């Protein structure tokens, strides 16, 4: 098979690495890719939103399967463009991707079908939102309705903060048109858990659990980011909780979409909060999480191409999804100043160490080659240093050891990824 991956981040590097293990696959292309993905795939300089060139490339190179990684192209209709051209593609169509593309759509869906989530109100004007905040309970969560690189969520502890949040989202357009509509949501407390799943339109198969660390600084301080690290599995996600979620969240979500005439084929990422009143949905994503993918796929036993094809063909019920009885931790090495202002173009040293040891991975999130052919930093999140271990504590130890193998100017990381496991 010839496979094309759309995207160029850590998630796509992990997907390329996993696809490269499939005996079904002969050639991998990635558009646009990065310096790490280039080890497994031929990188093609095509934007993730240039569907015409992507489709033309797929036809010219007789691509058998295309995987769309990021949220932007999915919400904009990448899967539709490939399907219209008669090409096989893994990822939800534009209609189904609204599950992530519109917070108000997903909240209304949960409300209509009784899927547990936080109470909420939706606003199209800043005046209405500000009026509501005069009497709303604090703290409160404000969410941009559209996509915002995983950063369009504001936790407001006071009424003043909430008003400033409305101004930032709706008036200052901090996230552009994504903030034209906002969702004001009840603040929930508890452990957060990320659960990825494969869906073929009717069947949902759950992957192993993970936990992300969104804040930029140690102790969950600082600004929201795309994710500073993850661990898998979550020790707080018990068999009892999984059974509850299967019955009240996972299967009902797929049934709800079908009832609305939406056939969802691809990945549903369930962002959960384990509250005192039981698990509730924080958010849905319509694709692999980043950096959750970097700890989930190294633990997956299956040939991922077989699973992708089963999702497309509606035969996911025939797949026995299996994961190793081990653990993984990912520590993100970022450019100092991320998620705001940072410099790039610095050479990355020490990557050869990962070729010498099994169970250690450097998944590239923001890298490219300079004119000398050296890998250099090219983003806020640069690398996801991932390591396996027999348990979470060993995996964490290995990940932080491996994080020291790599150096680049302005390197920054959190030092407490997975610290929550010490409480278990």
From TrEMBL:
In Gene Ontology terms, what is one molecular function of this protein? Answer: phosphoribosylamine-glycine ligase activity
The keyword ATP-binding is annotated on this UniProt entry: yes
In this protein, which residues make up the domain named ATP-grasp?
107-313
Where in the sequence does UniProt note compositional bias of the Basic and acidic residues kind? Answer: 211-220
User: In which domain of life is the source organism classified?
Assistant: Bacteria
Q: Which cofactor does it need?
A: Mg(2+); Mn(2+)
Note the HAMAP family from the entry.
Answer: GARS
Q: Which family does it belong to?
A: Belongs to the GARS family.
This chain belongs to which protein, by name?
A: Phosphoribosylamine--glycine ligase
Region Disordered: start-end pairs = 210-229
